[in-house]
Specification:
The structure holds 2 protein chains of 2 kinds. By secondary structure, chain A is an alpha/beta fold. Chain A has helices spanning 26-31, 75-81, 117-128, 148-153, 192-201; strands spanning 2-15, 18-24, 37-41, 52-55, 58-60, 65-71, 88-95, 106-112, 134-139, 158-162, 169-170, 184-189, 207-210, 226-228, 234-236, 243-245. Chain B is an alpha/beta fold. Chain B is 30% helix and 19% strand. Chain B has helices spanning 78-91, 105-116, 144-157, 173-182, 221-231, 247-256, 265-269, 273-288; strands spanning 6-8, 11-13, 17-19, 41-43, 60-63, 66-69, 96-100, 123-127, 162-165, 187-190, 194-196, 199-200, 205-206, 213-216, 238-241, 260-263. In chain B, strand 15, helix 6 (247-256) and strand 16 (260-263) form a beta-alpha-beta unit. Classes of the chains: A alpha/beta, B alpha/beta.
């Protein structure tokens, strides 16, 4: 874990409400792993007060950069969207436990909306180590399928699903999962409803879910992001996760 | 060089900037970015006789210039503190104040008794905001009599310097503090969080799983400062805190009568806030030509009595 004063190199619109940010933060870029996140101080004033967590979508060790893909949903991300190339931003990371790639299984990556971000990093690492990757990506409509240009850079094509049928399969991305589980290990990231569905479908295969939590510190100190396990225990999203075994974690609120 | 060292109710601190309980775990969480031998001290997560599971999520919510928390004092219990955390903290060169929580007077007293034999503990901070299960769940610290009884019982079991962390959710905080003093407290810690809540207007229900929580952050600083100002007349040394973000805030608390300050929510926002504040205090002393930080304590407050 490092605290770096990062320089914004890029912060551009990718799709309606969706942006891509590149930060120069060499120490964090070097040590980040797929599924881990960074905790950003999006601006310097008192409101909104707390840092915001974002999954790392890509890293470039040579250039010393981190790429984030985020959706503007509230005050914090609106402030983040205002940052310009050259701005400095305080970045804490890399944080949390990422994906654990299982040997002997073809990775099946399932992403929903902006949740695809950590899966891009996972796909790139998998390709780098010579593994085959399948990636299913869902969104409300074709224009909101983000991340494809990044994926193409290292030769991964995603299989799209849209709610309105404007591209690929018509319906939730989980509709593509059922017939593809044989010999696969599932790595999923997306909204809670999607993750719950993946959890049901992937009962019989190894599966890992990257979940979101409301957090203050991001390092396990405040105990704010507590979530439940299926056996009634408690885990912290920030340090025990954000990636959990699908058979361990409970997503029931 | 300016002298930042202070003696807080018998607790010797290299500088007057401490990590507030519940915002810094047991020190490990932030140790990679905050060297524990460079801050004044760490006040541990509230520690109970047995492990406590804490409250159901969601446990935190952001509010205007602040945040609410309802963690429910989740902690791994006294045994874990003694066997795992205290030895590790000693190895880091940290000055450790243990925050003590309980549901009954006996539970608090039992924790104090075990810690009395621990030379690695520099002092105790008593969290009197816990619900008193023997008295219908009302917090010990909102009532003068139950505050007195609790502090008295703990005082009898410990020779460590004893700070009482006061709740601001009372009509007259000075009256409660006087009871703590008369029961044998060595110092006051002021203030704990204010009761607050937030409601999710889409789902039409409270945001926090526990409905209400404790408000902290810059939003509460003026109120906390006024509490310290009023408490300065009680005659006990004060650890001041509540919404301190930058060194200027810390100077205000010292001038009001605090001997040292506790930093909490600011650490979540800027993990190195305590180090920045200690550096800022030193620069302030140099610029003002003041030799010792203790010379500032209560300097703006004519009602302050030396602790």
């Amino acid at each position: 874990m490092r605290l770096e004063g990062a320089r914004v190199e890029e912060n551009r619109l990718l799709a309606p409400e969706h942006r891509r940010m590149v930060l120069h933060a060499p120490d964090i870029a070097t040590s980040a792993a797929p599924g881990q996140f960074v905790h950003l101080r999006v601006h310097d004033s008192l409101h909104p007060l707390l840092r915001r967590p974002f999954s790392v979508a890509r890293r470039d060790v040579t250039a010393g950069t981190l790429t984030l893909i985020y959706r503007v949903v509230g005050e914090g991300t609106a402030r983040l969207a205002d940052r310009r190339p050259g701005d400095r931003m305080d970045v804490l990371g890399p944080l949390g436990r990422g994906f654990r790639m299982l040997p002997g299984k073809i990775p099946l990556l399932v992403g929903g909306g902006v949740g695809i971000a950590p899966l891009i990093f996972l796909a790139e690492e998998a390709r780098r180590t010579g593994r085959q990757v399948e990636l299913l990506a869902g969104a409300r409509t074709a224009a909101l399928l983000v991340g494809e240009e990044d994926l193409r850079e290292f030769g991964v094509e995603c299989c799209p699903a849209t709610d309105d049928g404007s591209r690929g399969y018509r319906g939730p991305v989980t509709g593509l999962v059922a017939g593809r589980l044989d010999g696969r290990a599932v790595y999923a990231s997306g909204p809670p409803a999607m993750l719950r569905q993946v959890q049901l479908l992937a009962e019989s295969v190894p599966a890992q879910l990257c979940i979101e939590g409301v957090m203050a510190c991001g390092v396990g100190a405040c105990l704010g992001c507590s979530c439940r396990t299926r056996d009634g225990g408690r885990r912290l999203v920030c340090t025990d996760g954000p990636v959990f075994d699908a058979h361990e974690v409970s997503l029931d609120g | 060089m300016a002298d930042l060292a202070v003696n807080l109710a018998g607790i010797r601190l290299r500088n007057p900037v401490l990590a507030a309980s519940g915002t810094f775990g047991y020190g490990r969480e932030y140790a990679a970015v905050v060297p524990l031998d460079r801050i004044g001290g760490i006040i541990t997560k509230g520690t109970s006789l047995e492990p406590w599971p804490g409250n159901p999520p969601p446990r935190t919510a952001e509010t205007a210039a602040g945040m609410l928390n309802a963690i429910g004092l989740e902690n791994p219990g006294l045994k874990h503190l003694v066997e795992v955390d205290l030895p590790w903290l000693a190895g880091q060169g940290a000055t450790v104040v243990v925050n003590v929580v309980g549901r009954t007077v006996d539970e608090y007293a039992a924790v104090a008794e075990v810690l009395d034999g621990q030379p690695r503990v520099a002092g105790l901070e008593l969290n009197v905001s816990c619900p008193n299960v023997d008295k219908g769940g009302m917090a010990f610290g909102v009532n003068p009599e139950s505050t007195y009884a609790l502090v008295r019982a703990v005082r009898r079991r410990t020779r460590h310097p004893l700070l009482v962390k006061l709740s601001p959710n009372v009509t007259d905080i000075v009256r409660i503090a006087e009871q703590a003093r008369d029961a044998g407290a060595d110092g006051l810690s002021a203030v704990n969080t204010l009761v607050g809540m937030a409601i999710d207007i889409e789902r039409r229900r409270p945001v926090l799983g526990n409905v209400t929580g404790g408000l902290s952050g810059p939003a509460i600083k003026p109120m906390a400062l006024a509490a310290v100002w009023r408490l300065a007349r009680v005659g006990l040394p004060i650890l001041g805190g509540g919404g301190i973000s930058v060194w200027r805030d810390a100077v205000e608390f010292l001038l009001a009568g605090a001997t040292a300050v506790a930093i909490g929510t600011a650490t979540f926002v800027r993990p190195r806030a305590m180090l920045e504040i200690a550096e800022g205090l030193e620069e302030y002393l140099l610029c003002q030509g003041i030799e010792r930080i203790s010379d500032l304590v209560g300097a703006a407050n004519p009602g302050a009595r030396a602790g």
